[in-house]
Specification:
11 strands; CxC6; Nucleotidyltransferase, domain 5; flat; CxC6 like cysteine cluster associated with KDZ domain-containing protein; alpha+beta; 5-stranded mixed beta sheet
Length: about 500
């Protein structure tokens, strides 16, 4: 059966389809589905040779956005054309596929659709907005390892859900203004977003707003210019070799055998490095793209601080931002069984008020809020919560805020009264069993961080849209694998109906 026959038959059965999709639209629909076969099969756990009865939600939403379809029309199109789309290019060689793809490219050009690197930007942003908060497909997960169900005093079944929140060092380039969440400009050497773009012409030294000179990122003040000269030097090979030598000597202070054989070479290297340390203001300026991200924020102490006597003005410390800033960390909320419920990017710092806002966004209703929220700084968070407004205190009323067992034993002082009286996990009988074991794993987030941090090398230079999309997709795939593992272990994973959790 040809595509035209399928199209005419579908239009007879569904008249609204003809009004919404032209034949070129159907061709594009089938082509997109064909190239997404692997993704669809994986998401629906269906064999690759047969089209599943329903599309995954993310593919369904993508096709709606790509073709401007309504939800109902997208479902109708899938029912009508899934067989044709699934076999659209089967049996064709490379030349035939390229030949049949040419009309698709011409359609994109004819209708002015973008075909550059930004062509998916709007769709990615829309998708990322949906994924924020309770957007992960396993957000409503529960199982025997993270949810304990017991009868209360009145005989009603009561569930106790446990989640752990922790941060992991992972980030993307962002605006150099502290805690600014606007995306950085997509220009080589850019340090600021469009809102703060005027600061590109201001001195890189923090708290100095003097204009820069051509070819420099600092103003004419001698101390500021010296700092920039030091940064240029810091990125030269000789400086880096000396720094590497210092690290070797620090890590191997007594390894005489290995270092003695090359002592003369190392001494010569030191002499050359020291000679290279003399700053030269005639060197060409170094672009921020040549700087390592962990070297972007430089500090230099005034020479007066080296004297035995202290200056009447105190030690003068100059700080500068020569390159891009990076986001501070990713905050993960993980069920005690290991399923990741949500993620948020923290820009300026991992402050406890940011954690509180993260919880409010991830669990927008009290019914969705877990009964136990583990965090290594819950003692500070509890104190802040007690000074919050009545609505915030009421929202978290009845929620246990224990410090996870490891940090409580090793990182918190025994003399801390707030921590000992309000965040000791032993306070709540629901958290331990009758035989003296902990009911929930309070270190699940720490274990997940080990896996999550390995993506740093992949995402460190991604723009914010692709960064969020990639990490959310990796979380989704890992969650699916974890659910299968929980089923194998007999933990009986299931999903709580979203409408029950999101209703007020």
């Amino acid at each position: 059966m040809s595509l035209l026959t399928d199209y005419l038959k579908a239009c007879v059965d569904q008249p609204s389809l003809m009004a919404s999709m032209s034949i070129p639209d159907v061709v594009i629909f089938c082509q997109l589905v064909f190239w997404l076969k692997d993704e669809i099969s994986t998401a629906t756990s269906s064999p690759i040779h047969h089209a599943p009865p329903h599309l995954p939600v993310n593919i369904h939403n993508f096709l709606m956005a790509a073709l401007g379809l309504t939800d109902e029309i997208a479902k109708t199109a899938w029912e009508a054309f899934r067989g044709m789309a699934w076999e659209f290019y089967t049996g064709l060689n490379r030349q035939e596929v390229e030949h049949r793809t040419e009309p698709l490219i011409r359609l994109f050009l004819e209708y002015g659709l973008p075909h550059d690197v930004e062509r998916l930007a709007l769709a990615l942003r829309a998708r990322n907005v949906i994924m924020a908060g309770p957007g992960q497909e396993m957000w409503n997960h529960a199982c025997d390892l993270c949810c304990w169900v017991q009868p209360d005093d009145e005989g009603q079944m009561r569930a106790v859900r446990s989640v752990v929140t922790d941060g992991v060092t992972l980030g993307h380039p962002c605006c150099a203004v502290h805690d600014c969440k606007e995306p950085i400009r997509n220009t080589k050497g850019a340090r600021y977003c469009m809102t703060h773009v005027t600061r590109e012409k201001e001195c890189a030294v923090v708290s100095c707003s003097a204009p820069v000179e051509d070819g420099f990122t600092t103003c004419t003040i001698a101390a500021h210019r010296a700092l920039e000269a030091f940064k240029r030097l810091e990125n030269k090979a000789m400086f880096q070799l000396k720094h590497r030598l210092d690290r070797i000597r620090t890590s191997q202070p007594s390894s005489g055998t290995s270092l003695s054989t090359t002592s003369s070479t190392l001494q010569q290297l030191e002499l050359e490095a020291q000679a290279a340390l003399l700053p030269s203001l005639d060197d060409p300026p170094v672009g921020s793209d040549e700087l390592e991200d962990d070297q972007l924020e430089a500090e230099i102490m005034d020479a007066a601080a080296e004297c035995e006597g202290k200056s009447s003005d105190g030690n003068v410390r100059i700080r500068a931002q020569f390159g891009r800033r990076r986001t501070h960390n990713e905050e993960l909320c993980v069920a005690s069984c290991g399923i990741i419920l949500g993620r948020a990017t923290f820009y300026g710092s991992e402050a406890v008020n940011g954690v509180l806002l993260f919880w409010r966004q991830l669990f927008p209703t009290q019914r969705a809020l877990p009964n136990v929220l583990w965090h290594d700084q819950n003692c500070r968070l509890w104190s802040m919560l007690m000074n919050s407004d009545a609505e915030t205190r009421q929202f978290f009323d009845g929620v246990a805020l224990p410090v996870d067992v490891f940090h409580f034993k090793c990182k918190h002082k025994e003399t801390d009264i707030v921590c000992g009286t309000h965040c000791n996990p032993y306070i709540w009988p629901e958290l331990h069993t009758s035989d003296g074991r902990w009911r929930f794993n309070s270190s699940s987030a720490e274990q997940i961080n080990n896996w999550f941090s390995k993506y740093q090398a992949i995402v460190r230079e991604m723009n914010v849209d692709r960064y969020n999309f990639f990490l959310d997709e990796m979380i989704k795939r890992r969650n699916r694998m974890m659910v299968k593992e929980l089923e194998r272990k007999g933990a009986r994973p299931y999903s709580i109906p979203r409408e029950e959790l999101l209703c007020e």
